[in-house]
Design goal:
By secondary structure, this protein is an alpha+beta fold. It has 13 helices and ten strands. The protein has helices at about 20-30, 35-40, 45-60, 75-85, 95-110, 125-140, 160-165, 185-195, 235-250, 270-280, 285-290, 295-310, 315-325; strands spanning about 60-65, 70-75, 120, 140-145, 170-175, 195-200, 210, 215-220, 230-235, 255. The strands form two sheets. Strands 3-9-8-7-4-5-6-10 form an eight-stranded mixed beta sheet, with helices on both faces. α4 packs antiparallel against α5. The model is unreliable at about 1-5, about 90-95, about 110-115 and about 260 (pLDDT under 50).
C-alpha cells in the first residue's frame, strides 16, 4: 500500500506508524468506509487494518460511525495534528506543514465545515461526528456535555481517556434513555474511574457539548438520523448553554458514589442499583445493564426498599440521601 501522489510520510515524528499513516490517508481520500472496503483498496488484512484504525482512533485521527457494519471517517487533519503537537516534545513543524497540505485535500473533497458569523451549519451526521472529535481536541480545560440518543459515533470514546490524563475536566449529564443501549453503562463507569464526573437526569432536553465555555456543538433535532447541527463560537448563546448545563447539573444525580457513613450497609452492586434507580431508569434497562433478569432485579430492589423503609422510588431517594448512602 503506497502513499497517494508520492506524499512523504511524516507523522512518525509524533508516534504514528507508517502503516497507520497510510491507512489514515486512504480513509481521508474518500467517504466513510468499512474495514472490508479498506482491505479491498489497500490489499492489507482485515485484522491488521482493525488494529491500525484502533490506534488512529486513539490519536483522534479517525472516528467510527454508529451502525452495522461500522464505517470509518477521517477527522480534520489540522485539528487532529494540533492535538498531537501539544503532546510532542520535539520540533514538529514538518508535521504541521503536512497537516496544512492535507487540510487542502480535506476541504477540496467537501468535508470541511463552512464558516459563518459565530455559527456554522452542519448538514450531515458525518460532519457532526467529526466536529465532536475536533471539539474535544481543541479543549484545554473543560468539556461539559448533555448526552442522550440518537448517537452518530460509536458510544465508546477513547479520546476522552487521553484528554482526562492530560488534565481536561469532563462533566457529563446522561439521560436515562442512554442506558437503554447495551454496554453504555460499562463505558460510562470506565470513564468515571478515569476521572469523568458523570450524573444522570431524566428528561435531558437537548444533546450538546461545550469546550472551554467558548465553543459549542448542538444538533438542531433529535430525530434519527441527525442531519442538521450547529457549531457555535464565543457568542451569548454559548454562555446561555453553559448556564443551562449548570442548572441541570445541580438537579442531576451522581452516577457514582461511595459510602459516607459507618452504618452504610450497601455493597458496590447495591449502590449501583440504587443510583440507577434514583436516576430514573426503568427496571428493564437496569437489569439489562447489570446482566440480570428483571425478576431478580426486582427482588433485590425490594430488599433495598425494605432496608430504607420506603414504599417507592421517591421515598427511597429521600431516605438514601438522609442516611448518606448516596
Amino acid at each position: 500500500m503506497g502513499t497517494s501522489g508520492g506524499d512523504e510520510l511524516v507523522f512518525g515524528a509524533v508516534g504514528v506508524a507508517p502503516f497507520d499513516e497510510r491507512v489514515y490517508r486512504t480513509v481521508l481520500a474518500g467517504p466513510p468506509v468499512t474495514v472490508r472496503d479498506l482491505a479491498t483498496r489497500t490489499g492489507s488484512g482485515i485484522d491488521k487494518l482493525q488494529a491500525a484504525l484502533g490506534r488512529l482512533r486513539g490519536y483522534g485521527l479517525v472516528s467510527r460511525l454508529s451502525g452495522r457494519p461500522p464505517r470509518w471517517t477521517a477527522v480534520s487533519p489540522t485539528a487532529a495534528v494540533a492535538a498531537l503537537v501539544r503532546n510532542a516534545h520535539e520540533d514538529l513543524s514538518r508535521v504541521t506543514d503536512t497537516a496544512a497540505e492535507l487540510e487542502a485535500v480535506y476541504r477540496a473533497i467537501g468535508q470541511a465545515a463552512r464558516p459563518g458569523e459565530g455559527v456554522e451549519l452542519l448538514t450531515s451526521a458525518d460532519e457532526l461526528g467529526r466536529w465532536f472529535v475536533r471539539l474535544q481536541q481543541e479543549a484545554t480545560s473543560e468539556i461539559m456535555s448533555l448526552d442522550r440518543p440518537p448517537y452518530v459515533l460509536d458510544h465508546s470514546n477513547p479520546l476522552e481517556h487521553m484528554l482526562l490524563g492530560r488534565g481536561v475536566r469532563y462533566r457529563a449529564i446522561y439521560d436515562p434513555s442512554a442506558f437503554e443501549i447495551p454496554g453504555i453503562l460499562d463505558d460510562v463507569t470506565g470513564l468515571a474511574r478515569a476521572g469523568e464526573e458523570a450524573r444522570v437526569l431524566a428528561g435531558v432536553p437537548v444533546k450538546m457539548a461545550v469546550a472551554d465555555r467558548r465553543l459549542a456543538l448542538l444538533p438542531l433535532h433529535l430525530d434519527p438520523p441527525i442531519t442538521r447541527s450547529v457549531v457555535i463560537r464565543g457568542t451569548t448563546l454559548v454562555a446561555a448553554l453553559v448556564t443551562l448545563f449548570e442548572r441541570l447539573w445541580e438537579q442531576a444525580v451522581p452516577l457514582t458514589a461511595g459510602p459516607s457513613a459507618d452504618t452504610d450497609p450497601l455493597d458496590a452492586e447495591d449502590r449501583r442499583i440504587l443510583l440507577l434507580l434514583l436516576s430514573g431508569l426503568k427496571d428493564e434497562a437496569i437489569a439489562r445493564q447489570l446482566g440480570t433478569s428483571t425478576r431478580s432485579l426486582r427482588r433485590r430492589m425490594r430488599i433495598l426498599l425494605d432496608a430504607l423503609g420506603a414504599e417507592n422510588r421517591f421515598q427511597a431517594g429521600v431516605q438514601a440521601v438522609r442516611r448518606g448512602w448516596v
